[in-house]
Amino acid sequence: xxxxxxxxxxxxxxxxxxxxxxxxxxxxxxxxxxxxxxxxxxxxxxxxxxxxxxxxxxxxxxxxxxxxxxxxxxxxxxxxxxxxxxxxxxxxxxxxxxxxxxxxxxxxxxxxxxxxxxxxxxxxxxxxxxxxxxxxxxxxxxxxxxxxxxxxxxxxxxxxxxxxxxxxxxxxxxxxxxxxxxxxxxxxxxxxxxxxxxxxxxxxxxxxxxxxxxxxxxxxxxxxxxxxxxxxxxxxxxxxxxxxxxxxxxxxxxxxxxxxxxxxxxxxxxxxxxxxxxxxxxx
Length: 283
What we know:
The protein is α/β, with parallel strands linked by helices. The chain folds into 2 domains: about 1-50; about 55-280, Rossmann fold, CATH 3.40.50.880. Helix content is about 35%, strand content about 20%. The protein has 5 helices and 13 strands. The strands form 3 sheets. Strands 2-1-3-5-13-12-11-8-9 form a 9-stranded mixed beta sheet, covered by helices on one side. Strand 11 (about 225-235) and strand 12 form a beta hairpin.
């Protein structure tokens, strides 16, 4: 074989080797890229699987020196977290208007309100109103109907830097609190037939029962309110629990229940938990 033939054969061999090397490099690159993609996908899937749906955050604003809610609501918060997919934060006024963490409302999904005749600091009232104006839901209990009214007649004047919201009951809750029945008679609680199949009463015993709390006089309530429960004492019946939407589109659940003997009652507790989950259902 002469030099020319050897050169041709060598050139062919060289071209074959170059093609083989290029193909091998391409194959290696493809396999590496594919492996990285698989690893990334697995990591995303693992992260997604490991991260459960976030529980709704219920901010509890409480300051009540009359029905022991200052003590009972923090206890109820612990029970809610232990038994339901609910997170809680307590914004506590300890019977007064000194709330240290009202800014927690900015992260809250729903507010639970139990306040009695307190004029909030201007900045705290703004935080609360800003929450409502976002169209977020509110749950209000018993004395929340007169939460921000210092007196019936309006003659008490808020301290400097504090403000009332006397229209809150009618404007937001859709109620009309103007007095209550005898304290020693309590309230016969009746759930309307139309309400018994509502998610808020899922698993709740809806047979009539007796609450130790006096009957709140709330008539007339807003026309758009969906009435769930009524209370009766000495032949007088008043709206007790209802659901409506306020002017900012937020759902509002109000109940005049909330006497200290109501808090350990399963009917009150389950209704409260169900209402939180119902109001946060679109979260």
